[in-house]
Amino acid sequence: MARFLIPVLIFLTLAPVAQAKVVELFASHNCPACPEAHRVMNELAASDEDVLIFTWSVDYWDYLGAPDPRAMDDAKVRQRVYADRFKNRGPYTPQTVYSGMAQGPGNRPDDVRAKLSMAPAFDEVTLEANQKGFVLSGAAEGGRYDVFLLTVDASGYDEIGIVNAVVDARKVGTWEGGEAAFTAPFTEHCAVVVQEPGFGRIVFAEMLSGAAASAP
After folding, report:
1. Which tens digit of pLDDT belongs to each residue from 136-154?
2. pLDDT category, 209, cuts 50, 70, 90?
3. SS3 sequence, the chain?
4. Whole-angstrom distance, CA of residue 37 vs CA of residue 95
5. 8 Å CB contact between 107 and 189
6. Hey, how many other C-beta atoms are within 10 angstroms of the C-beta on 120?
7. Which of 42, 43, 189, 210 has the smallest count of CB within 10 Å of its CB?
8. pTM value?
9. 147-163 as b/e, with b when 16 or more CB fall inside 10 Å?
C-alpha cells in the first residue's frame, strides 16, 4: 500500500503554483481610446483568474468634457511616478502598468498580453483578514515595502464596464517580512497591495472581498 502513497505525495508537492500578477489601467472617460482599453481589461479578467486588475481614473482630460467622477489625485501622482520611472514623455491614457515593472497602451490586446508575460509573478506572501484589519506573512527579499489598502467599485461603472475602479487609496504602513498585523478597517470591496517604495515592483496583491468585512 505504501508503494502507491509515495508517488502521490511527490506529485502534490510538485504541483504548479498560480503566477498571479497585477495590471493597472490609467484611464479617463474623456479619452476616446479608453472604452477599447476597458473592453480589453474585461476580456483579460474573464480569461485569466490569476490577474488582478485595478483601474485608476485621471483628471487631465477633464477639459474635453464633464469631470471624471472617479478621478483622484492619488491616481495622478502614481502615474507621474511611473512616467518618470519608465522614461515616458509624460502621462497618457489608456496606459497599463504590469506589476510595477512594465508599461504600454491598454487598448492593444497583443501588447497587453506581451507585456503581461514580462511582468514578475508575486512573491510568496500570505494575507489573513481579521476584525481589525489583516496580517501579512512571508519573506521580504527586497527589504521594506509599502502596504496600500485600495477600495474599488466592482459594479462595472455603468455601461462602460470598468474593472475594479479605484475610489480610495491609502498607505497603511510598511512591511519588512515575517508576520505583521495592520489595523485598517476595510469593506468587502478592498484589496491589499504590497509594493516596493517609489511605486516599484508589486510583490503581492489580493482582494479582501472573500473575508469578513470589518466595520468602517
Report:
1. 999 877 689 999 999 998 7
2. low
3. CHHHHHHHHHHHHCCCCCCCEEEEEEECCCCCCHHHHHHHHHHHHHHCCCEEEEEEECCCCHHHCCCCCCECHHHHHHHHHHHHHCCCCCCCCCEEEECCCEEEECCCHHHHHHHHHHCCCCCCEEEEECCCEEEEEECCCCCCEEEEEEEEECCCCHHHCCCCEEEEEEEEEEECCEEEEEECCCCCCEEEEEECCCCCCEEEEEECCCCCCCCC
4. 9
5. no
6. 15
7. 210
8. 0.86
9. bbbbbbeeeebeeeebb
Q: Is the pLDDT of residue 18 over 80?
A: no
pLDDT of 160 > 70? The answer is yes
Q: What is the mean pLDDT of residues 34-39?
A: 96
Q: Which of 199, 210, 211 is nearest to 91 (CA)?
A: 199
All residues at 6 or more sequence positions from 53 whose CB lies less than 8 Å from its CB, including other chains: 22, 23, 24, 25, 41, 44, 45, 163, 164
Per-residue pLDDT, averaged over 34-49, amounts to 94
Q: How far apart are CA 38 and CA 92, in angstroms?
A: 15
Q: What is the pLDDT of residues 162-182, one digit of tens each?
A: 999 999 999 999 999 999 999
For residue 134, pLDDT over 80 is answered with yes
Tell me how many degrees the CA angle 155-196-171 measures, rounded to the nearest 5: 50
Strand pairing class (190-195; 145-153):
antiparallel
